[in-house]
Every structure is written in C-alpha cells, then in structure tokens.
Design goal:
4 strands, four-stranded antiparallel sheet, 14 helices, alpha+beta, 6% strand, 61% helix
Length: 366
C-alpha cells in the first residue's frame, strides 16, 4: 500500500462508522466484551466481523475488476496487523471477478455460508447508512446487536414523526377525503416502518396492481425515500456548517507551495461538489415528490405505481448521492469534535482527497 493508503487506513481505523464506512473493528473495540456483541454478531467469522466495509466509488482502473458495469462497490478491508496499521492491509471488492475464491481463502467462507449472504445483502445497498442497513438485514431475517447501528431513540422518534406528517394525505385519501385522526396516521406509519409479516399494506399493493415481489421491493425503496427525505432536511445546518469549516480550517506544520496550492484548490472543489451532490439529491427526490403528489392530490394511482416500479434504480441513485454527503458530514464532525487537535498538512490533504473521490459527480465518470 502507498504511504497515503496507510495513513488513510490508520485514520479510518480510529474513526466512527459513516454512511460510507462501517467500522467493525471500532465497534469490536467498544462493544466486544458485551453479551449482545458476542451473541448477535453481524458476521459469524471473527476476521470479517472486525474488518472495515467501505462503499467505494470505483476509479477508472478498477472497473475492469468487475464483469458488469458498476460505479460503487463494497470494499472489505482487513488490516494485516491491528496493532500496527503501518503494516497496511488487504482488501477485496465483493462481486469482483474471483471474489468467491478470495473470500474462501481469506475468511474461509463459501457462497452457502451465512456471512456470504449477509455480504450480498450489504452489497445491494447504495450506502451503509445504519437505518437502511438495519432495514435491509431485518427484512431478510437477520438481527444483529444494536451496537452495529448507530441510531438513537431520539432520531427514531423524529423519523417516525416525519413519516406521520408525510403520509397524512395518503391516510386521508384512503378515508375518502375525511380528515385523518392521529391514531389512523400513527397506525399507517407503523405499518410502513415495520417489517413484520402482518403489517403489510396489502390493500395498497392491490390498488396499484403490483406483484408481491414488486410490492415488497417498491415499499422498501419508498421507506428509503422517506428516510432520505428526512435525513436531507435534518442535515441542512450541518451541510452549511461543514462547508464553512472546509473554507476556513488551517493545518499545522510546515507547508510547501505545492501543498498550499492543492489545499486552496481542494477547499473550492469540495465545497462545489457538496453543492452539486445536494442539487442532484434534490432533483432525484423531486421525482418521488411529484409521484406522491399525483397520488394524494390528483388520485392518480398509476403515477405512484410507476414510481414504485422505478424506485429500486432511483433508490440506488439517491443513496449514492446522499451517502456521499452524509459521509463528509459525519466524518468531519467526528474528526473535528470540540478540542480535537488541528490536522497536519498531509492529513488535511488526505481528507480533501477522500471527499473529492466520494463526491465525484456521475458525469465525471463517463
């Protein structure tokens, strides 16, 4: 690994999980002695359950590792020595050519192993956001310990309140235009957010003439859109704050002309790419808003049915766009907590380079 890759791995190991990074080693260090962690592991294989999973935006020279066309892949990183990260690490992309043989060699798991199934489910997600990760695993009957999902009770309640407000027009429509009671709204919100077999909105699936498979996938993605919409709104202040701090942060230590020029450029590029990612996220979200308004305001069930059929592709796009912004915000807020030391020049360059890669526009990849 290069010096920069080693520094990045060393810093990643110390950092918290984000929408782009699931730091299982950090979770192990904090929760490894608890009963929940040992009895409800995310992965049964110890080495895999202490690895780092990264939603990695593929570079041009990495696309040939895959048989199909991909923009983002799930990167599994295993440090060679957890006590000394300067030794570097090994990694494999899930679904890359020969990944089954590599996973068998490194972890001893085969395609029929439960951990392989869990990896496949994680790979299907556009980001490692804890809410989506928990929902994806839950609907597959996988129930890891809560320590793997950094979701507070307060955030869950805020999310529930948002969903209740969002679906009120739909509940009112289902009641023939009668004003919906808080109880009716609460019950439907609980059904939307639940994965329990008895909590399906079967009537909606019948009205929209969706097959059970189309219905299940569409509702999961609709749930994701609701969550992403709440997340985007709740991040507004953090986005503005981080953009301001990117423009003003000063590293410590000597700085040559090349580093000074890169940091000046990097500040502008990162800020511009955050703005672009936010704009693209809003454009994708608008597709949902228009379809939902068509259903609830105009009684046009077909437009919402078309949205649910398109939802998996839109969900992947939205997850990539918003996941990149979430990663920047959560990584920045973790690294630069109050009283945290100022970054060195090389560290700040690494952070800006990571952000540029994460936020890179889709048009730049073609």
């Amino acid at each position: 690994m290069s010096d920069r890759a080693v520094r990045s791995l060393e810093f990643l190991e110390k950092s918290a999980s984000t929408a782009r990074v699931l730091n299982l080693f950090q979770i192990y260090k904090v929760h490894g002695q608890t009963t929940a962690w040992s009895e409800q592991p995310l992965f049964q294989t110890p080495g895999l359950n202490q690895a780092l999973l990264i939603k990695h935006r593929l570079r041009r020279n990495e696309t040939d590792l895959f048989r199909g066309q991909r923009r983002v892949a799930t990167k599994i990183v295993v440090p060679i020595d957890n006590r000394e990260l300067k030794a570097g690490g090994r990694y494999v992309f899930f679904d890359q050519i020969n990944h089954t043989a590599i996973l068998k060699e490194v972890f001893g798991i085969t395609v029929d192993h439960p951990d392989f199934r869990t990896l496949r489910l994680i790979d299907q997600l556009p980001s490692l956001d804890p809410f989506l990760l928990r929902e994806q695993l839950s609907r597959a009957g996988i129930d890891p310990a809560p320590c793997y999902f950094a979701i507070s009770e307060g955030d869950m309640q805020k999310m529930l309140n948002f969903v209740q407000h969002e679906i009120e027009p739909l509940v009112q429509l289902s009641l023939g235009g009668t004003k919906a009671s808080p109880g009716a709204i609460s019950r439907m919100a609980a059904k939307i957010l639940s994965n329990a077999p008895g909590d399906r909105l079967d009537g909606l699936g019948e009205v929209l003439r969706l097959s059970p498979e189309q219905y299940e996938e569409g509702i999961f993605c609709w749930k994701g859109f609701l969550y992403f919409k709440w997340t985007l709104g709740s991040m507004a202040e953090d986005i503005a704050s981080v953009m301001d701090k990117v423009a003003s942060i000063k590293p410590v230590g000597p700085m040559d002309r090349e580093a000074r020029e890169y940091l000046a450029r990097g500040r502008e590029v990162v800020r511009d790419q955050i703005k672009l990612a936010r704009k693209e996220t809003r454009q994708t979200m608008k597709i949902y808003d228009e379809a939902y308004a068509g259903l609830t305001q105009n009684g046009d069930a077909l437009i919402f049915r078309d949205f649910l059929l398109r939802a998996p592709g839109l969900f992947a796009r939205l997850g990539e766009q918003l996941g990149a912004i979430q990663h920047v915000i959560s990584f920045w807020n973790f690294r630069f907590r109050p009283k945290s030391p100022a970054p060195s020049v090389s560290e700040l360059i690494d952070i800006f380079m990571d952000f540029e890669t994460s936020l890179k526009g889709r048009s730049e990849e073609t």
